[in-house]
Design goal:
369 residues; alpha+beta; 6-stranded antiparallel β-sheet; 3-stranded antiparallel β-sheet; 46% helix; 14% strand; binds adenosine-5'-diphosphate; binds 2-acetamido-2-deoxy-1-O-phosphono-alpha-D-glucopyranose; binds magnesium ion
Length: 369
């Protein structure tokens, strides 16, 4: 995070129609992209909590379009939650307007900020603690995809074009190896070879989409476990967050990214690779939950491609971490040296384990088809 950002966080906080006076504003959560702060305000002795976020406008180049997506999707979800007699303040994100009535604030240095109501009594996990939680999150992401099926896709801005276009990510990776701006390529020859050996498989999803075998849907595109809040009291998946990448995409992306993160027996940046593996138990509960949540909407072709989605999202993510390492760690936030390389290693170890367990993964999916 830049010093500029810290310096402007109070200017930003004071631009929003929050209740009371700002009491504290500290860095929060473990997202890799935005700068997130827990903002605590006080009014007549009562505390009010918010999430203040500096959006990463180097990555999201069209903030106006992005915020239109967030506003559109959260308003749409709010209506459904109200119809189902749910609690819209906890079951979806709620934007707090600026004092001037806007959805975001641009500070005097050109940073873009937004504020959400803080969702309390719920947790974002980096590792599955109970299989039941992972089942719940599968159901919630599947259900989310079903709800979005009714969303007017034409109104959505493509916030990061080609986000899960793996062959296009591969082109960027090859360029990063060739340019080798930090002189790190020699040190990661084995990792580069790992990616290149799998280059041919990368085009399948795009090919099936182009042929019409896999339908384009409105998807979340970043369905890792720490982008869903689990209610502490009931253990139920309560709110899907991080809506910046909602765009037209493939159902196997949402399924696959959840498996990549949640069915791994280790954290995404674990340094001890002996801890990394695909838990078939977690894979199975997620398949069950996701398909229940999708409520029969997925075609047979989509369901049979779920294992491929899991492998591709893992390979793509590892390749993105490696690309960022080669480019000098300019994309994902890092908190230690070689952090992106560590993350790349866990992803590749997981891909290798999926390759070993491929027959079992396919058999599990067949069981629920
Ligand atoms: P990033 O794009 O950087 O991942 P996120 O929007 O996922 O940013 O937010 C980062 C973290 O902040 C989340 O993982 C979660 O822990 C926390 N967070 C985000 N929004 C809320 C909210 N409305 N209430 C409570 N915590 C939140
Ligand atoms: C980023 O924003 P966050 O931390 O939820 C990234 C995802 C990666 C993920 C890897 C916009 O997600 O695509 O899969 O890191 N988001 C963006 O943990 O690039
Ligand atoms: Mg996130």
């Amino acid at each position: 995070m830049s010093a500029d950002c810290c310096e402007k966080k109070l200017e930003a906080a004071n631009a929003f129609a929050v209740k009371g006076e700002v009491k504290s504003c500290e860095r929060y959560g473990s997202g890799h992209i935005n700068d997130t702060f827990l903002l605590i305000c006080e009014e007549n002795g009562a505390e009010h909590k918010y999430i203040l976020q500096r959006m990463n406008h180097m990555i999201f180049k069209d903030i106006e379009g992005l915020m239109k997506n967030v506003k559109g999707v959260t308003s749409f979800l709010r209506k459904q939650i109200e119809e189902n007699h749910g609690n819209p303040e906890r079951e979806t994100l709620n934007l707090v307007p600026t004092k001037e009535g806007g959805d975001y604030y641009k500070d005097s240095l050109g940073n873009y900020w937004r504020v959400y109501l803080f969702i309390g009594g719920a947790t974002c996990y980096n590792l599955v603690e109970k299989p039941e939680d992972f089942y719940q999150s599968g159901k919630a992401f599947g259900h989310f995809q079903s709800l979005l099926a009714e969303y007017p896709a034409k109104e959505l801005t493509e916030t990061i074009p080609n986000f899960h276009n793996t062959p296009s990510r591969f082109v960027t990776f090859q360029k990063a190896v060739e340019e080798d701006v930090k002189g790190r390529a020699a040190e990661v020859e084995a990792e580069i070879a790992f990616v290149r050996e799998r280059a041919e498989e990368m085009g399948l999803a795009m090919k099936l989409q182009a042929e019409g075998t896999l339908p384009l849907r409105v998807t979340h595109n970043d369905t890792k476990l720490n982008n869903i809040m689990i209610d502490d009291a009931s253990g139920q998946a309560m709110c899907i967050i991080d809506l910046d990448t909602i765009m037209p995409g493939l159902s196997i992306f949402d399924f696959g990214d959840s498996i990549r993160f949640g069915a791994n027996t280790a954290e995404e940046d674990e340094q001890d690779l002996s801890k990394v593996s695909l838990s078939l138990e977690l894979f199975e509960v997620y398949v069950k939950g996701f398909l229940e949540g999708c409520a029969g909407r997925l075609t047979e072709a989509e369901v049979s491609m779920l294992p491929y989605g899991a492998k591709m999202m893992t390979l793509e993510c590892g390749m993105r971490f490696l690309t960022d390492y080669l480019q000098g760690d300019t994309y994902f936030h890092i908190t230690r040296e070689k952090h992106n390389l560590d993350r790349c290693h866990t992803q590749f170890a997981l891909v290798a384990d999926m390759e070993k367990k491929w027959a079992e993964m396919e058999a599990i999916v067949k069981k629920y088809q």
